[in-house]
Design goal:
single chain, about 140 residues, mainly alpha, Four Helix Bundle (Hemerythrin (Met), subunit A), binds fe (ii) ion
Length: about 140
């Protein structure tokens, strides 16, 4: 399978610069993992990069959830569940890295690449569109 880095393009913008900037940072960390695999950069430690992603994601989700609830986004519960499912999946991958028969980094990266691009394009874009349609330029703490 061809494993290309995730290119930030305007397609991935949800139209909120603060959220976009955090998404860029998350994608940057995923790209570090792709470098690790493609360029065989052994000086990078895969579990450390994954742990960095987990920490950053945790803060990002909390802010995003606060933001959705503050605007009264009707699909907040569903969206928060997507975050929970993701957290659980990634935590399992992380644990498994330290067991016998650890998952291949490429398997984890494929999941991450797919999840983040889909989630940003569909789920995250949806709450921002909802906000723009119903509340214009009102801002909420968090983002
Ligand atoms: Fe989200």
């Amino acid at each position: 399978m061809k494993l290309d880095k995730i290119n930030w393009t305007n397609d991935l913008s949800i139209g909120n610069i603060n959220i976009d900037n955090e998404h860029k940072e998350l994608i940057e960390i995923c790209n570090e993992m792709i470098d690790f695999i493609k360029l065989n950069r052994k000086e990078l430690e895969f579990d450390k990069i994954l742990s960095k992603l987990i920490n950053y994601t945790w803060k990002h989700f909390r802010k995003e959830e606060t933001y959705m609830l503050a605007m009264g986004y009707p699909k907040s519960t569903e969206h928060i569940q997507y975050h929970k499912d993701y957290n659980q999946k990634v935590a399992t991958y992380y644990d498994e890295l330290f067991r016998s028969n650890p998952p291949e980094p490429i398997e984890i990266v494929k999941f991450l690449k797919n999840w983040w691009t889909n989630h940003i394009l569909h789920s995250d874009a949806d709450f921002e569109n909802h906000k723009k349609a119903t509340q214009g330029t009102t801002t909420y703490s968090g983002f």
